[in-house]
Amino acid sequence: MRGRFTKFLAVPVLALALSACGINSVPTAEEQAKAKWADVESTYQRRADLIPNLVETVKGFAAQEQDTLTAVVEARAKATSIQVSADDLGDASKIQEYAAAQGQLSQGLGRLLATVEAYPDLKSNQNFLALQSQLEGTENRINVARRDYNEAVRQYNTTIRTFPDIIGAKIIHGAEPMEPFAATTEGADEAPAVAF
Amino acid sequence: MKVNRLPLLQSVVFTSLLVAGCNEATTPFENNSAKVNDATIQLTGRVVDQADLLDIQVEKILTEKLARLEREAGPQFVIVTTDSLNGLDIVEYSVDLGRRWAIGHSERDDGVILLVAPNERKVRIAVGYGLEGSLSDPFCAKVIREDILPAFEDGKMEEGIVSGADSLIAKMRTSPTIKLNDNELPLTLKEKQAS
User: Fold this and answer.
1) Which of A20, B38, B58, B136 has the smallest number of Cβ neighbours within 10 A?
2) Is A190 helix (H, G, I), strand (E, B) or coil?
3) Could you tell me the domains of chain B?
4) What pLDDT digit, counting tens, does each position of B77-112 carry?
């Protein structure tokens, strides 16, 4: 009687033991973090997409700000040329390079928008106002996406380092920790200052 | 029957979007552990007037308008006034509220919050991704700039909130997120019966 019980119990116990050791939780957390990274990249892309139009609009009113405009165009080109694939999220140097390029672009945009203060016609231009609000909204989206990514990475890293998930993480998945997104440039965390 | 609780739909990807009328530097994301404290503000209805800016009658009229909007066009719109942002950035605060309260339909992601923080002098319209088509950044910025801020600057908080809400409602009605007669009302009723 006792022997049969043990046999019956063996199956659920084994299943439980396996599910508790990271078979599912590790890839789930990993996919979650990768999805959040995709959101980070798409919000940055969204910002990059706004810039040509912004530069054209500012140029129409403030052509003498050529240096600032060029800096933005160049920073945009650099930033859009750097991509981090989902498989490289454990590579700190790649993430840093990406963050630095985007931070550079944030600074350039900040400077560009600061110069706008000197041009009242530009400041009240409807097209500019629309772009400015889109840019500001997108900076907000970037911050939210980055926060969500970092939270997902934190959860993933905790999962793969904590017993019992660490068993599956080490033996079955060979899971490596992922890197959070840290802004590397001074002021890169700041949305461009736009005064209404 | 009065709607006391909004249907608490499953957690929404309430990624908030917009624009605060008065710009603020965005909080460094190291603060990401900071959250709106549960105890400080509760979802008590479609209008949560914690800062007491609205006359009770106006609050009632607004609540009815918001209920009708959800019934007839789909979007779930909540108006919030708060005494304090608890030191959070208004963007973070509004995103946290939207997510915690799960505003909007979980699949349509059509929630919107108009958040007013009179003491910090901040206002923000936070929009779910499903409403970006109608409530674009430029549109929301314009509502803040033209409907809300002029009244606020004259100290007429209630007037600003009502006029901003009216513009947002009118715009959302032009592109409903549901087909007519095919919406969440049964769910709302179910929710009410369950409680």
Assistant:
1) B38
2) coil
3) 1-22+45-175 (3.10.310.50)
4) 999 999 999 999 999 899 999 999 999 998 999 999
The count of CB pairs under 8 A between chains A and B is 78
What are the φ/ψ torsions at residue B127 (nearest 5 degrees)? -125, 135
Tell me, what's the pLDDT at B181? 59
User: How far does the CA of residue B97 sit from the closest CA of chain A (Å)?
Assistant: 13
Q: What is the pLDDT of residue B180?
A: 66
Cβ-defined contact of B25 to A137 (cutoff 8 Å): no
- ipTM of the predicted structure? 0.75
Instruction: Point out the residue among A133, A144, A195 whose CB comes nearest to the CB of B19.
Output: A133
Q: Give the Cα separation of B156 and A86 in Å (integer).
A: 50
- Tell me if chain B has a CB within 8 Å of the CB of A70: no
| C-beta atoms of B26 and A138 within 8 A | no
Q: Does this model's pTM top 0.95?
A: no
Q: A130–B15: do the CB atoms touch at under 8 Å? A: no
For A25-173, CATH gives 1.20.1440.20
Q: List all residues 6 or more positions away from A8 whose beta carbon is below 8 Å from its beta carbon.
A: none
Beta carbons of A165 and A25 less than 8 angstroms apart: yes
A88 at interface of B, judged by CB pairs closer than 8 A: no
Residue A150 CB contacts under 8 Å (≥ 6 apart), including other chains:
A180, A181, B29, B32
Rounded CA separation A51/A98 (Å): 18
